[in-house]
Amino acid sequence: MERYVIQAAYKTLQVLLAFAHAPHRFSLHELSVLTQMDKNQVFRAVKTLEYAGFLSSEPDGKLALTSLVNALAASNHRKAALSLPRAAASHMYRLFEQTGETVGLYTYDGERAVCIDLIESTKAIRWSSIVGKHFDLHAGAGAKAILAYLDPESQQAFLGKLPTLPKHTPRTITDPKQMRREIERTRERGYAISDREYDPETRAVSAPIFGSGGRVVGSIAVGGPAFRMDDEHLQIYGHMAADAAGEISQEMGFVGLALGMVKER
Fold it and tell me: CATH 1.10.10.10: which residues of the chain?
């Protein structure tokens, strides 16, 4: 451990971070197993966190977070909402260097995906987009990655209006049952694929980015002309995008599996 790290404080924070995992309420024994710490160490950490107001005991004896953490989460969420391009910048550039293809960054505005940053490929024939453009969530890898990880209510509400949305190409999905299967495949892979669904000559992959509250806040995508983006490249770039999205999510304050990304969270 680093020379200036206070071990007792570090262990106490490890116990606090354990509550980011479901079911978010634990007994001392469960915390000991989860943190792989001695039960006496966990007990002292819990007593410290209770005294500071971060934990409280519930009627069944299990421990849970108090509302005190909400103030911290709200503060971090406001900061994170403004810093997605900053958090993603170095990861976008690395992905661009690794693939040679266009890399896009999207945010979720509560209804649609919005392109907020773009590094275009230097190749003569390339995928391009427009910063500031809004996209419905049914077409395009960046949009579909967000859709796949929305909360169930928002997802269901979107699927309800799916048949009324435009078909950009013959491959655009507007059938709710078909989109539900696509969502399941996206979550199994950890990244979304757009196969000539928004543009008839473009294929792309994209992985979701999560904020401090655990909700999807955006996505990072890699795309190019279909003749270069064969199935093998889609898989390779999909995993690269997922790795980048996982790192960006951590910088955004997401406390969860540091995935290579979120396969069935």
Answer: 7-66
